[in-house]
Design brief:
Length: 282
């Protein structure tokens, strides 16, 4: 329950940052972080920052269980040491990286439809239902899922899933390597890292992996928005090429600043609850 509660809390607090990131990556109307925040607040009120939040919250438990479950089981298979023995016999960084990649690969498939609906809802700029004004295209997460299914077919729900998988497979390896590396650096041999170490290592793991993930994150978000009206991109490669042509190489780092600010607290609490769970039940 702790994993679920703190994970959800981190997600709620981090969501406004995520919304600004997604808008900066997929829309050209904003000049920067502050401009985007001011416009959202003016046109959509505070509620605008929380669009698309319910599905990520509903799915975080499943997605994180898949990620951390696959990660620790892959490590178990690779190293043949249990959780209890792990502090005495720490796994190699190669094994950590491979286990992280495996976890990232499998969680990406669970995440894909939820992430798609989140991005579509976050990009709706209409203010909340006002009498007289036309309603937004999607009325909520379930309506959004049903509309995508109807308009774009069942495969439509997996739009951008390939880019998401490519984004997450190596960067989840980086995520766990950074976390383990920092923990080992600041923990005496054979001991468990203390809470402060876990928080800081988790926070930096979040930042490091998100910085590495940003180029494909931009492409992923753009692929997910494609198909809404008419298709603009032939595929992932075409999306990359035309984005760079139109906006320069800087396009690959859209939203990296605001996303890093979000990543630190969110991933600090994620790893803290992971460590507590391991110690209680591991
Ligand atoms: C691998 N990648 C960098 C994409 C994500 C790493 C952190 C995932 C975490 N649930 C979060 O929302 O921050």
């Amino acid at each position: 329950h702790l994993l679920v509660t703190t994970g959800a809390l981190g997600l709620v607090l981090g969501h406004p940052f995520d919304t600004v990131k997604v808008r900066l990556q997929t829309q050209t109307t904003y000049r920067g972080i502050v401009d985007c925040m001011v416009k959202i607040y003016r046109h959509e009120s505070l509620l605008g920052f929380f669009k698309g939040m319910s599905f990520p919250i509903a799915s975080i438990a499943v997605v994180n269980s898949v990620l951390f479950g696959v990660y620790s089981n892959t490590l178990l298979v690779l190293t043949a040491t249990s959780h209890q023995e792990r502090r005495a016999q720490p796994p190699s960084y190669t094994h950590i990286f491979l286990a992280g990649c495996t976890g990232g690969f499998l969680q990406a498939y669970c995440l894909a439809p939820f992430d798609l609906i989140k991005v579509r809802l976050q990009n709706q700029t209409e203010p909340r239902a006002q009498p007289g004004s036309p309603p937004p295209r999607y009325q909520g997460p379930v309506h959004c899922a049903a509309s995508i299914f109807r308009e774009e077919g069942p495969r439509g729900l997996f739009r951008g899933a390939w880019a998401l998988t490519l984004r997450d497979t190596p960067t989840m390896g980086i995520y766990f390597i950074t976390y383990e590396g920092l923990c080992r650096q600041y923990t005496p041999e054979g001991q468990n890292p203390n809470s402060a170490t876990v928080l800081v290592a988790g926070g930096f793991a979040g930042i490091a992996s998100w910085v590495a993930a940003t180029p494909l994150d931009v492409i992923k978000s753009r692929m997910q928005m494609d198909g809404l009206r008419r298709r603009a991109y032939q595929g992932m490669l075409d999306c990359m090429v035309s984005s760079v042509r139109q906006e320069g190489l800087g396009v690959f780092f859209r939203g990296v600043t605001i996303n890093s600010a979000r990543a630190f607290p969110v991933n600090a609490v994620t790893f803290l609850s992971y460590e507590y769970l391991l110690r209680w039940w591991g």
